[in-house]
Amino acid sequence: MLSLGTSLTNRNAAAMLRDGLARVAQGEAEIDCGALGQVDSAAVAVMLALARAAQARNTALRFVAVPRQLAELATLYGVDGLLGLTPQTAPHRH
């Protein structure tokens, strides 16, 4: 599972995208967003690019543990559905 780290902003988006695209090309299907504490619109752009790359490989990419702030940005930009995000971003534990 690929981790997006603790921060995904304009400052590190290009490097994260390069790494993420390489991992998706190798067949990675899950992206862990759980550690992300600092995000901006670049995070949404990276997620979209990764999702498109996976789709081009006929792979369903799954974003897990998406922080509320990131999910809200995706909703604001109208791409939450494209990313497979649901309103409830925290994993359910029973």
From TrEMBL:
Pfam family, one: STAS_2
Database matches in InterPro entries: MlaB-like_STAS, STAS_dom, STAS_dom_sf
Source domain of life: Bacteria
Residues in the signal sequence: none
Location of the STAS domain: 1-94
Protein name: STAS domain-containing protein
